[in-house]
Structure formats: structure tokens, C-alpha cells
Amino acid sequence: MKAITGQAPPSRIKLKYLQAVAVLDETHSLAKAADRLNLTRAALSKTLAGLEDLLGVKLYERTASGMVPTTFGRTLARHARLILGNLRSAEDELRDLMNEHRESLAVGALFIAMPQLLPQAIALLAKSDPRCVITVRESGSFGLAAGLHDGTFDLIVGRLVPEYFRSAVNLEPLFEEDLLVICRSGHPLAKATDLRWRDVADYPWLLPPKESPISHAIQSQFLSDGAQGPKVIVEAFSIPLALGMLQSCDAMTVLPSRLAYELRDKGEVSILSLRSPPLPAPMGVAWRKDYPLSPLASAFIAALRTCAASTQ
């Protein structure tokens, strides 16, 4: 009889299985996945059959429209992406340490965190951790949550919309703020009082993509005021584009109050007298509970807390 050690047995799922599942989840095609993995279709099919035999479940339904994952297949693919993402992060971090003795950190950030909060936190961090590589990638709220879950980001800074996150994530609010509507200084409506949302529907607007919670909030304001929304909408996560549009075509956009007031004080924009829509969630930082924070990640979170608190 084998002694009970209290330790879980080693996993029988090999790396090649995880790679096959992750690529299939992207392509939904045996032929495309085989090409991506430099395998023949027969070899990949044999690998999948071996994995299904090993687990005792069916992972995919082979249909005329492609490989359709079962519930088991979707679950395994989610874990495969996370594990492979962690391995890539480990390789990158080890390479940085071997080459230049630098720690690395992958940060996902909402576009509105770019002009103020992130630069301030990075500047503070640079005083104590001068040898590091911080990679910052911009995305929307849903993309940030997805990137955190699959291991693309070590941590994210953005709106902590609860329904975007699973339970295995730490969510730490940093601050809440209002959303303000801005236009260029000298805009025809810059000094108007008691504006209604229907009054600004004829001007071009730059908004986050339609799946963004902020975009939903703005559209709701128009509808509640009896307007169908702006006639011209440009969807983008880009403050430079927004400011360029404000100057070139009397456009309007929305920004968090901190950034809007800073730009107003510089004389770059005016703040319109429109009732602000409620924001869907506070700005904050999030990281996975099952992925221990590196010293650099912990220091960066501490810097974010300090910078957020100093401006409240």
C-alpha cells in the first residue's frame, strides 16, 4: 500500500497538451492550429485524442464549421492560457535578470490613467527601484480584466467593474471622481449655462468604444433627455485624438474630473455645464490572488496608493 503524503500527485497534462488547447481556442480550426504548432493535422488530432483519453472527457465537438469546445474544453483552455502566460512571464523576467539584473512588470492600464496616475507612480517608483523594466499596455476595462485573468498583465489600473472579474482577483479601489464634458476653449457653447444633452447632440463626439461602461453612461444621458445621441461619434481610447478633435471640429468628449480640471487650468479646454453621468466603478488596481506579487509589483502598488492619496 502506498503511503499517504498529503501532497497532490503530479499533473499528467503535458505542456504540448496546453499549447494545443490554447491555439485551438484561438483558431477553432484543426488545420490552422496544426500550422501554428508546426504539426500535421493527423499529429494534432492524435494529441487531442490522447488528452481526451487521459482526462476521460470530450473537449471538442468536430463540426462542419470547425472545432467547437465543450464546457470541459473551455475550462481547460482558460487554464492553459493562464499557465502559458505565466511561463512566458517567467521566461521574460529571468531573461531580464540574467542580461541586466532587472526586474520586470507588465501593467495594463485604462487610457485615463495614462496622463496622470501612472506617470506619477512610475516617477515615485524610479526613486527606489532604478533598475527595472515596466511594460505598460493600454486597453479598455473588459480587455484589462481579460488580460489579468490570462496572465498578460501582472496587474492592471482601471475601472474596477465587478462583473468583469472572477473571484480569484484582488480589487483595491484608489479613488472615485466625477465625469465631466469638455470642449475647446472658445467653443460656441463654452460659456453656455443650463445646457441639456439634446443641446450638444449636433456636435461630433469622441467616446470610448460602445462596450465601454462610460459609453453606455453617456448614451443613457442623451436618451433620458429625449435625444438619440450624437450625430457623429468617433470611438477610440485616445486622449491625444480627443484633444485634436476638440480643436479641429468643435467636438466634445468626457474626461475624469482630475484630468479635465488640469487641462482647463492650462487653458486647453473648457468644461461644459452638463449634468455629469455617474461613473460605473472607482479607479483602482487589481491583481490575481493565485499569482504571488513580485517585489517590484508590490512597490508599484504602494506607489499607486501614495499618488492617489496625495491628490484627493
UniProtKB/TrEMBL annotation:
InterPro entries for this protein: HTH-type_LysR_regulators, LysR_HTH_N, LysR_subst-bd, WH-like_DNA-bd_sf, WH_DNA-bd_sf
PROSITE patterns membership: HTH_LYSR
One matching Pfam family: HTH_1
Keywords assigned by UniProt, alphabetized: Coiled coil, DNA-binding, Transcription, Transcription regulation
Domain HTH lysR-type: 13-70
Recorded family membership: Belongs to the LysR transcriptional regulatory family.
Organism: Pandoraea fibrosis
PANTHER family: HTH-TYPE TRANSCRIPTIONAL REGULATOR YBHD, NITROGEN ASSIMILATION TRANSCRIPTIONAL ACTIVATOR-RELATED
Coiled coil start-end: 80-107
Protein's UniProt name: LysR family transcriptional regulator
